């Protein structure tokens, strides 16, 4: 009874829809006629407004009184009043002075403003001027089918709750409801095309879920029978999509086809059966792609296949010790071939050009296949076949490119793309075989290839893909550094010639090549959220090149130094030298190309590294000498290396001093602060080198201690020597430095250097009298006093002889006779 009521309800809906179709057509015709009449009325009103106003005939009587004529002008112009002589009205009508043309000459033309870009709602109204038609023909049917399916579901649920329908009856209701929807859709396919498509989608949904429930909940069908029935439903949906020429039906059949294995799954799946079914489904889409150019169907099939295969690969292969690697590689290769053919078959058949989306699909298909293959082969014979696999992909793409190159009608963009893939895989073969970090290198080379292809083919989407792939490469590179340099389980890496550093070099080459290609980039990079200008991307690539170059070197050096010397002073000295050397190179590069922004940033970096040298890096040299001569350190390699850091510090000071004119205008406090900073660094370097060399030459001829007593004796002598250097050597050295500053300040007429000299003298004297006299040896006391006294006398003599320079810093430089 309930089934009869349901069928009767559906028949009434269909009959009612057919009965009211005539009324609907009459209403649409009436709306059309009203729209035409409205347009004619508007056109007539516009024509009336454009006609000149008629001139009324007046009697030719003389005007006795003078009447002022007021000429109305726009608000921006003054109002002009003119007196008109008494004339006859007939003459006034024909007189040229009162014609409107001269008045119009004073009226400024309005500036035409560009029309604002319409909003989404405005565009929607423009595309659908008749909202009633849109709602009645396009929106209501979709809402109606959803409500109808929900109503059927609620009715069936109510009947089940009341025990009116048993399990077989429930399945029959679902099958009949789905079949009835399909039958109605077929009946009205020509009259109501859009509505029939919606009915087909609803009918297929009902059939899919009915069979799934019959298998999973009611156990009416076996797994094989349910699977075959759903395959038949999918094939029927594909046939309907081709027959009706509607992509929406093909998408619906695809979704149902990919959902079928999960609907009939028991939790103990066989990957061979699953991927064989997916392969058959994709081959059906390949046949469909031969006849129809439906990109949405391609996207859905490709997306679901990649998703399902990736999930299986990450769970069943990566996390299993006895995974079917051979079968995984076989199905990956078959999927690659099917989607490669799906990308090419229609355009080659119709000699059509490849769009940016199609080229992106081809590239992503190759990238996913290569990533899956390398992941699988990494578990087979310790990755011995990865290089062969890479070379094989190069050969395959070369064969396709060669066969297509002979056909002149083939799109040249596809040929360029295949040639680029050949070059990419051929370039990766040797690094991959040598355990290179192939994924990162592949993306690095692919980013350059995409940008080059975009400039050759003019496809904007390829250049956008180049930016995305470059971002992926950088993320992958950081992950490689973390996995190779920080993972303790990784076998020790060779110096420089290891997969981590080689990957870094390839990434740097990719960034430099991209920077050179950007000089030829004609258009900005388009994204969904906006666009990226070429100049901005050039700045980003420039900064990334510097950053990646720095971290590539520092990670490699830190890794090798840590494995060789541990976290001790030698490692600190090596890292400090590298940082200073990098800052000098960056500053030289910025000065050569006269880039003010780069000069400012490199100068700030140089000052920061000078500060780090004073506070952190240089102290490691003293720690190394103390640890080595006390028997706690086995290597002294850091001491000769520290001379390189010393040269870099001097080079930084010289470069920072010479590039100041290129940085003008600078804030005044920087000009006042810089001489003090430079003087402080120079005095610190001299003092530090005095400590280091006195200790080195004092203990270099002594045997290293081996016992605890010997180490204690060396430690006592070491700290006693440091005390003598502090109380005797430093006052003498600081006095010499103060004398040099005074000499420079006098000869170059620089008041700041003279003040620095006097300040250093004052500090030296305070240190000498309040700290150094206690505990100093007699010889040290004599040497310190004599040297400082002599230096002070010389300074006093220089001040007396060059008094004019001291009193007036702007006076001309004295001659040699005056000196």
Structure description:
- The protein is mainly α.
- It has five domains: 144-269; 287-433; 436-554; 566-704; 737-819.
- Helix content is 76%, strand content 2%.
- It contains 29 helices and four strands.
- The chain has helices at residues 2-50, 89-94, 100-105, 120-127, 131-161, 167-187, 193-216, 223-244, 247-263, 271-291, 295-317, 325-350, 356-377, 386-405, 412-433, 438-457, 460-485, 499-517, 534-565, 569-592, 596-617, 619-629, 638-658, 660-663, 668-699, 708-747, 751-772, 778-801, 803-807, and strands at residues 68-71, 80-83, 525-527, 530-532.
- The strands form two sheets. Strands 1-2 form a two-stranded antiparallel sheet. Strands 3-4 form a two-stranded antiparallel ribbon.
- Helix 7 (193-216) runs parallel beside helix 9, helix 11 runs parallel beside helix 13 and helix 12 packs antiparallel against helix 13 (356-377).
- The N and C termini lie far apart (128 Å).
